[in-house]
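To the wet lab folks,

You asked to see what we're planning to order before we commit. Fair enough. Below is the target structure as tokens, and below that is the sequence we designed to fit it. If anything looks off to you, flag it before the synthesis order goes out.
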């Protein structure tokens, strides 16, 4: 009996040990949901996104569906994370590649960091300045110290830097992100000849910060990076004007370069803006923050607004010299078209014109005639959503001096109606017509070109974060729209973010191809505006729920917004473009 009892005791001990081991294992595993497949799985605590990506890649290959593009990172609970990120708690993970919006940003950030390192390696004494985006790429300058005995050969510089970038790509070096004490990060940057980056870090009120490394190079990149230089395969560096153009992949066809079309009018606006911000000593966020910190915000507002007024007056003079009878004013969403229409009209009135205004929004077709997108939703962004025959009929009648009845569009009912509004142009009259399609030749094909003067308005440029990190004009307009939609439509930030990709697609298809048709371009960006919008946008962005994909976009906007010191809007004049988004405008919309 004793032996049997002893054996039973031993068996129970083994059984208890097995149960404990199994229990411990369960305690050290975490459940993830792989959103790409909908699969729930247990993985060991500390599993990296890279390990999940490797398993996913192998499973797709085994199923005969090999991935076309490498995994660059993931949305982990809808936050963008690099491949090195480790998972310790239950998460929803969606692996992303370059065809994803956030994946494309990772690729683009990595490419800019590669350019920075290549310039540093080839020309340690030079400074890389990534000035602005230009189509689907970046316009850059490589600035050398002033030396009278040396003439810089641009082609030689371009070739040498491009070759170094190719070397970096072929070496497949990892991009590494490290979270470190802010004081340690400041010391790392201090001797790197990056004064604007240093200023930002020194004035951030946080203990820790994530820094980015490629070999022995260190930087603070605004966003996450692709895993390695070998993932960044489609790009080019070429000469452009007095600088260089870093071309990116086409987001829809990542194995091909984005097609670049020369846009001299657009580039002229960028060059003018560069000269202006250098004159005001405010090209970057650190320069802006210095001004605000030194109580110079009010003066900055006055200077920026004075520049706008000067530009509106110059455009009005150009219209007068042209002899045009119709001013067509176009631009993408949240570019400030409506306020620009009002302010240009004021300047034209000063020149003696009897100004009539017309909005293309009143010429939308009824809902039953509106074209639809493949997903079944109405396509309000296409030019065919407008009643083009009726518009041309009215414009021709106005040009003949006839009186016409102008429709008003009821957006709630989705149909036009006639309220009794009429319009007639006299000898001193001029018509100012605004809308996103105003520069599309289809819209006014029956109107003599000599009668038309075309204006393109957009927030084309803005502050850069530092010499190598820019704030994209598209992001600037998105922040404007989030604030406006909340103030005037009652939409939260989630609703605006959800609609934004369709808006951008519509702009690329229906607006940007015609921007060079303009007689003049107007940059509606204001140097101070993000500091003002910050007060309104940040609370809205922080309310975007974590369980939606738009959360990642909200976090991206918060990253650069948090770098800016806020400005009170009480000093902004009532005719400012900003009032179109904030409220309090002296114009009727």
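Sequence we intend to order:
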């Amino acid at each position: 009996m004793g032996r049997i009892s002893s054996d039973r005791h031993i068996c129970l001990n083994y059984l208890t040990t097995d149960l404990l081991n199994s229990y411990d294992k369960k305690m050290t595993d975490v459940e993830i949901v792989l959103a790409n497949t909908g699969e729930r799985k247990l993985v060991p605590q500390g599993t990296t996104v890279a390990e999940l990506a490797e398993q996913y890649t192998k499973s797709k290959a085994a199923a005969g569906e090999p991935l076309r593009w490498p995994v660059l990172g993931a949305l982990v609970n809808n936050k963008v994370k690099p491949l090195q990120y480790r998972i310790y708690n239950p998460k929803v993970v969606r692996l992303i590649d370059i065809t994803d919006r956030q994946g494309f940003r990772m690729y683009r950030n990595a490419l800019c960091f590669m350019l920075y390192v290549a310039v540093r390696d080839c020309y340690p004494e030079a400074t890389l300045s990534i000035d602005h985006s230009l189509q689907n790429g970046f316009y850059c300058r490589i600035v050398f110290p002033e030396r009278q005995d040396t003439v810089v050969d641009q082609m030689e510089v371009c070739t040498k830097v491009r070759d170094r970038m190719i070397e970096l790509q072929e070496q497949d070096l990892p991009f590494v992100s490290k979270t470190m004490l802010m004081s340690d990060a400041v010391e790392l940057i201090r001797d790197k000849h990056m004064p604007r980056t240093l200023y930002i870090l020194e004035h951030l009120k946080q203990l820790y910060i994530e820094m980015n490394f490629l070999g022995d190079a260190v930087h603070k990149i605004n966003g996450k990076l692709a895993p390695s230089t070998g993932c960044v395969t489609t790009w080019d560096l070429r000469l452009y004007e007095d600088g260089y153009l870093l071309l990116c992949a086409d987001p829809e066809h990542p194995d091909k370069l984005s097609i670049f079309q020369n846009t001299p009018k657009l580039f002229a606006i960028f060059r003018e803006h560069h000269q202006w911000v250098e004159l005001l000593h405010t090209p970057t966020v650190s320069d802006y923050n210095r001004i605000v910190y030194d109580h110079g915000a009010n003066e900055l507002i006055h200077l920026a607004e004075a520049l706008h007024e000067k530009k509106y007056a110059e455009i009005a003079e150009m219209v007068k010299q042209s002899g045009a009878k119709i001013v067509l004013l176009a631009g993408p969403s949240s570019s400030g078209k409506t306020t620009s229409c009002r302010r240009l009209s004021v300047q034209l009135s000063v020149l003696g014109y009897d100004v009539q205004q017309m909005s293309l929004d009143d010429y939308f077709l009824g809902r039953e005639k509106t074209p639809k997108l493949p997903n079944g939703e109405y396509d309000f962004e296409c030019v065919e959503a407008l009643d083009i025959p009726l518009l041309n009929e009215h414009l021709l009648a106005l040009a003949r001096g006839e009186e016409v009845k102008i429709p008003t569009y009821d957006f709630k009912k989705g149909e036009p109606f006639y309220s009794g509004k009429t319009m007639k142009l006299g000898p001193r009259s001029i018509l100012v017509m605004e809308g996103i399609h105003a520069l599309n030749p289809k819209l006014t094909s029956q109107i003599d070109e000599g009668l038309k003067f075309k204006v393109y308005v957009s927030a084309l440029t803005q502050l850069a974060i530092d010499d190598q990190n820019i704030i994209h004009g598209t992001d600037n307009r998105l922040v404007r729209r989030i604030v406006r939609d909340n103030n005037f439509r009652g939409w939260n930030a989630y609703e605006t973010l959800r609609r934004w990709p369709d808006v951008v697609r519509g702009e690329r298809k229906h607006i940007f191809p015609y921007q060079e048709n303009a007689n003049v371009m107007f940059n509606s960006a204001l140097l101070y505006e993000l500091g003002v919008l910050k007060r309104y946008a940040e609370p809205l962005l922080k309310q975007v729920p974590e369980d939606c994909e738009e959360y990642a976009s909200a976090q991206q906007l918060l990253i650069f917004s948090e770098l800016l010191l806020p400005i009170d809007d009480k000093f902004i004049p009532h005719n400012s473009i900003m009032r179109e988004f904030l409220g309090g405008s002296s114009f009727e919309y």
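Structural context that might help your review: The two ends are 97 Å apart (CA to CA). Residues 2-28 form the longest helix (27 residues).

Thanks,
Computational group
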